[in-house]
Amino acid sequence: MSAAKVILKKGEGRTIKAGGAWIYDNEIDRIEGDFENGDVVEILDFDGYFMGRGFINTHSTITVRMLSRKKDALIDEDFIIQRVKDAWAYRKEVIDTKSCRVIFGEADFLPGIVIDKFEDVLVVESLCLGIDRFKMTIIHALKEVLAQDGITVRGVYERSDAKVRSKEGMQPFKGFIGPEFDTKVQITENGVKYIVNVEDGQKTGFFLDQKNNRAAIHKLCKDKRVLDCFTHTGSFALNAGIAGAKDVLGVDASELAIHQAEENAVLNHLEERVKFRCEDVFELLPKLEEEGEKYDVVILDPPAFTKSRNSIKQAVKGYREINIRGLKLVKNGGYLCTCSCSHFMDPELFAKTVREAAAGAHKRLRQVEFRTQAPDHPILWAADSSYYLKFYIFQVMEDK
Question: What is the rounded CA–CA span in Å between residue 231 and residue 251?
């Protein structure tokens, strides 16, 4: 740990005092003492009151990422290893751990790192300079705690290739950590088999956060006609198929994703009932409406339309349009499953946007469920960045 101290401006640090995980550059009055970016530093309020310790990086607008609020905490390898043990112990209590997120950054008090487990393979995303120094310690500790439960890790792949890494002054990295292995990994979730491409798939290869939401649609889909928009590798579409849907169409603009979705359909013997089209969803839905198509269940699982507050207005337009289009394709009494995975599209704004879309489509919505991300992606209250996924199931009715 560095002996350097970060002193906040008077009146700043409100989010930290409320339990937040980040300190921004404009909240800092001065930094006393020598340090290197990535070091652990002490954080003090303007009056010298101890507030905690965290990683510092002056390259980033998020200058400090909090690690501990305990004055006597020693941030060393033992400290990090205990955090890993705690993260795994939590997963074992709340979710099926065959494939799950085992470390979720700030929500597991290990800021800047995400690790997903796909059966016996780990995929690592390290986005913070400070945590990157402990990356191998974390991986080794995770292998050890998994081994204690009889799980042998076959391989580790790093997907630290997100653009946000450059904001930490770090170069993107993608590749094996340790021996090479087949990066197409078969997993089973909710009774559905998938091939997860951990090397070339989006993010870490598969979106584990929707696990319970995918299970939630099963009861709606038996003998139904289902449209799955932004299907990626077919996850919602295949869940509909496994649940007994008579006819499923999955749509995505990525040829690679659609090819993988078709492979997954064959893997589950669903290729006769679950079909896929490579097409832009925004362009396809108006065509389907013109053709008079109607579906019992429409699923909207778009990518984040905004990754910053600056583009939120444009994102709202996108979410409103796609929900209007989707609603017009739902049969009277059918169901709309709609979600947003953008942290900046907060729950209130998303609800308002869907409500406006329903008015625009002249539909009435009856809420069946509101859900969020699976518990292996825990939401740490006051650390808003950990809460991002909003998922609604509505029954859709004509105006009466």
Answer: 6
| CB within 8 Å of 269: residues ≥ 6 apart | none
List all residues 6 or more positions away from 271 whose beta carbon is below 8 Å from its beta carbon: 262, 265
The DSSP symbol for 253 reads S
Is 337 annotated in the active site? no
Give the CATH fold of the 186-398 domain.
Rossmann fold (3.40.50)
Element (H, E) at 284: helix 281-290
Contact 379, 346 (CB under 8 A): no
Q: Which amino acid is at 275?
A: K
Dump pLDDT digits (tens) for 312-345. Answer: 888 899 999 999 999 999 999 999 999 999 888 8
Grouping H, G, I as helix, E, B as strand and the rest as coil, residue 95 is coil
pTM: 0.94
* Integer Rg of the chain from CA: 23
Active-site residue, from 128, 229, 337, 341: 341
Domain 5-68 has CATH 2.30.130.10: yes
pLDDT tens digits, one per residue of 182-203: 999 999 999 999 999 999 888 8
Per-domain boundaries in the chain? 5-68, 77-181, 186-398
Pick the CATH number of 77-181 from 3.30.930.10, 3.30.470.10, 1.10.1060.10, 3.30.750.80: 3.30.750.80
Classify strands 225-229 and 247-252 as parallel, antiparallel or unpaired: parallel
SS3 234: coil
User: Is 267 a residue whose pLDDT tops 70?
Assistant: yes
Structural contact between residues 120 and 153, judged by C-beta atoms closer than 8 angstroms? yes
The SS3 assignment for 54 reads strand
